[in-house]
Design a protein that fits this description.
Shape: globular
Strand order of the largest sheet: 8-7-9-14-15
Number of strands: 15
Strand content: 15-25%
Number of domains: 1
Bound molecules: magnesium ion
Structural class: alpha+beta
Largest sheet: 5 strands, antiparallel
Length: 260
């Protein structure tokens, strides 16, 4: 247990996975047009995954256990009021939708995980702002992660910016350490809580984190829909989700899922 630091060669292997994730999300973005179904978008990621020889992290997650229905697709696609963990299917994308796509892969034993929200056609001004602010929240984290800093300092910057822009930060789902497993220690919340202060993390070179702010236009309250997976806002207001896998370096961090 505990946080496993990665060597630079391990981080480079995670970058290989990160490139596949980036390419899959790029292909999904191209496919994400009015009239296509979320299953058709998911199929684009399946194609990239097959070409890569990697293993999708989400399909059949988690390992079988009584009463748990494994996730059935390689991407999570969450439209409008859906926050995360949307199941690709027959839902048809419409002009004005915002579509969050999350994808993760393991290549030669090492994982990458990233998400983006795609604006389809003529998106309402307030919804565009939601996406813009959430993407900026992720960028604030990338700009401020550095060795010696505590994660709560970064989380506070993320939360303060989002709330000053009139957005709410989802509390029920957080980022995570990542490496040979998709979910490793530590938890990486996008907000400050007494729990975070108690279990605060000092950032160190070799830490690899999946940072993934989720913001909403209404309240931060969410619930799980009747399919057992899709997380939706309780008030039906839209949500946005952006995620990168980053590695803490000697003087900041590098993004492993930006396609470089
Ligand atoms: Mg993800
Ligand atoms: Mg993640």
């Amino acid at each position: 247990m505990g946080i496993r630091l990665k060597t630079s060669s391990e981080t480079e292997r995670m970058r290989v996975a990160g490139r596949v994730v980036h390419e899959a999300l790029r292909r999904c973005r191209e496919a994400c047009k009015p009239g296509v179904t979320t299953a058709e978008i998911d199929a684009e990621a399946e194609t990239v995954l097959a070409e890569s020889g990697g293993l999708g992290l989400f399909k059949n997650y988690p390992a079988p256990s009584p009463g748990v229905k494994p996730f059935p697709a390689v991407t999570c696609i969450s439209v409008n009021e859906e926050v995360v963990h949307g199941i690709p299917g027959s839902r048809v994308i419409k002009d004005g939708d915002i579509v969050s796509i999350d994808f993760g892969v393991r290549i030669d034993g090492w994982c990458g995980d990233s998400a983006t929200t795609i604006l389809v056609g003529d998106v309402a001004r307030k919804w565009r702002k939601l996406c813009d602010v959430t993407e900026q929240v992720l960028q604030i984290a990338v700009n401020n992660v550095a060795p010696g800093r505590r994660w709560s300092q970064v989380a506070r910057q993320m939360q303060t910016f989002a709330e000053a822009e009139g957005m709410s930060v989802v509390r029920d789902f957080v980022g995570h350490g990542i490496g040979q497993q998709m979910h490793e220690e530590p938890k990486v919340p996008n907000f400050v809580s007494p729990d975070l202060i108690r279990h605060d993390i000092e950032l160190k070179p070799g830490m690899v984190l999946a940072i993934e702010p989720m913001c909403t236009l209404g309240s931060e309250q969410v619930r799980v829909a009747s399919d057992g997976w899709t997380v939706v806002t309780k008030d039906g207001k839209p949500a946005a989700h952006y995620e990168h896998t980053i590695a803490v370096t000697e003087d900041g961090c590098e993004v492993l899922t930006d396609g470089n």
